[in-house]
Amino acid sequence: MKNLALVLLLFSTSLSLSAADAALGKWNLNLSKSRYDPGPAPKSETRIYRLEHGETKAAITTVYKDGHSQTVIYPATYDGKEHPVSGSPDTDGVVMTQIDDYTAESTITHAGKTIGKTRRVVARDRQTMTITFKGVAENGDPVNNTAVFQRIEEY
């Protein structure tokens, strides 16, 4: 249950990308610039957004403080329809919209209910990505996370 808020942010905020999307690439979490409320923050996280066979795929690998890891994978698209999320017990769907080449938003679902909303903004220099998540944990407590990522590879 303590990892639910983190899982929601980490797995559900990965957003669909197009060829012009600034987020395509590999990103590492910068813990010193991130904030997890209520927490705890993960030990590390890597996000990869890449085009495969004309479709964007998202893969997010998170290592938690206790050492266990989790990888969430899904096809990402900005069509406003719900798409399945695999690898997360707390999130099973995501609906994504693209605001512009640098900004995207998503609605996160579990068991048919909205559990949170995210906003992803890539800096104009394409080196920093900030993902905010606002939602609720399984126990009903509010979650308000901001995760900042640094690009390590561009695709």
Radius of gyration, in Å, reads: 14 Å
**What's the total helix number?**
1
Report mean pLDDT, rounded to a whole number: 87
% residues in beta strands: over 45%
- The helix-and-strand class reads mainly beta
Query: What strand order characterises the main sheet?
Result: 4-3-2-1-10-9-8-7-6-5
Low-confidence segments: 1-19
* Count of strand segments: 10
Return the string of H and E elements. HEEEEEEEEEE
Distance between the termini: 35 Å
Describe this structure in words.
The protein is mainly beta. Helices cover 6% and strands 53% of the residues. A ten-stranded antiparallel beta sheet has the order 4-3-2-1-10-9-8-7-6-5, with helices on one face. A hairpin with a 2-residue loop joins β2 and β3 (55-63). The chain is globular. The N and C termini lie far apart (35 Å). Mean pLDDT is 87; it is low at 1-19.
